Model the fold of this input.
Amino acid sequence: MTKSKRHSQVLRSYWGEDTASTLIDWLNRVPRLKNDPVRTLIDLQLRGPAFPDMDPRPAIVRHVNETARRWRLALVPIAAMTPTGWDADWRHKPTNKAHPLQLLAFVKALHLASQGLLNRVRPCGSQQCEKFFFARFAHQEFCSAECQRLHLRSTPAWRKGRADYMRRLRAGIKQREERALKIVKKGKKR
Done:
C-alpha cells in the first residue's frame, strides 16, 4: 500500500511552465550569444510595460517575421505507422541557420506568445541574479525566495528598519543586564 502525499508535498505545475522550460534553459545558457533572436524577442516583449507610450507589437512582428525568413523556418508533414494504422504530425524543417536548441527556444517563445504567457518569462528582479524565470504569478518578480530576500535586504528602507531593530535590541539587552546586575548587588548587601 502506497502512502499518499500531503498537499504541501505535491509538486504543482502551472499553465505554460512546461513550455517555458526549454526557453528558460536557452536564455540562462552560458555563454550567451550576441544578437540572439530569442533574447531580442523577450526584450521586445518586456519593453511594452516599461514604456507604456510605445507599442512594441510592430517591432515584435517585424522581428519574428525577419527571423523566420532568415532561418527559413517551415513545417513539414511526417507520417508514421502505428500498431492500429498510421498517424501524421507536423515537424520543423531542419535548418543550419540556427542552433537546434535556439530554434526550439524560439518556437516555444512563439507558443507562449500565442497563449498570452510570454510576458511571464522575465529576468529576476535582483541585481545580483541574471537568471530568467517563468513567473507563476503575474506579480512575481524574483526567481527564488533567496533572491527576493537578497533584494529586500539591499534596500535603504530595510537597512534603516534593521538598524532601528538592532538599536532597540541592544538597548533591551543592556537594560536586562543592568537589572540583573542590580538584583545581584542587592543580594550581596544582605
Q: What stands out?
A: Residues 94 and 100 are 8 Å apart (CA to CA).
